[in-house]
Structure formats: structure tokens, C-alpha cells
Amino acid sequence: MTVIDFYTHVNNPLEIIVRLVGKAYAQHGRVRVLTEDEAMTAALDQRLWIDPPHAFLPHCRLSSPLAAETPILIDHLAEHEGPAAVLINTQTALPPFFSRFERLAEVVGCDETALAEGRRRYRFYQERGYELRAHNLAAHR
After folding, report:
1. Relative to the CA of 135, which of 12, 58, 107, 118 has its CA 20 to 30 Å away?
2. pTM
3. Structural domain total, the chain
4. How far is CA 24 from the centre of its chain?
């Protein structure tokens, strides 16, 4: 059953996502990032070319001809083909394919709307018996 980590009160989502991608790639090999929209997909794509500065995280979008052989897939499209062990979700909607992954990281922003939607997703998973862990990043600022 999927293990779910909630990262709440995230002030800088791209920074947290890059850290999570790096850790998930090192530990599990294949990662899927479900971004909010095209703008976030483009920003994350750019960020992963330069961050972390001492390593390269091999990534592409779902539409890339290299998607089948690239270990990190980033896109805002709510679909997923192929293998991946970790899903990182930044959307307020529940990812329809989350149960196909060993791990799910929910990245939740600081504003009230994001927190309310995060609580709604948390309850959904909790009611279905998923193992949940919460990490409040407001304490780490």
C-alpha cells in the first residue's frame, strides 16, 4: 500500500520539490512529479538543470520521446504511463493514479486554500487506511 508524506506550509515549492526529487531518485530510481500547471512544469524543468549544482537529475516531460527511458518525469498532465516508485504531487486535486506508487509526497503551500485542500486529501487517504506522515515546514524556516 502507498506510504504518503505530507509536506505542509511550503513557502518555496520548487526548492522543496528539487530536494524531494533528488532524495527519491537516489533511493528509488524512478520519480514522477505532478506539477500544478504548465508554468510550474517549465520552472521545475529549468530548475532541475541547475539544481543541485553538484549533480544532474535526469528528467523530461511526459511528451518527450525519451520519457520511457528517463527516470524523472515532470508534467502537469494528470496521467502516468510506465514505471515509477515515487509520485510527488503539487496539485490541489487528488492524483487519480497515486495508488500505483510505493510512495506519494504531497506538497502543500502556505495559503488557506492550499492548506484546506491538503487537509481534504489527508482525510481522503486517512479514511482509506493509508500510512500517513506529516512534515510541517513552517517550523524549519
Report:
1. 58
2. 0.95
3. 1
4. 10
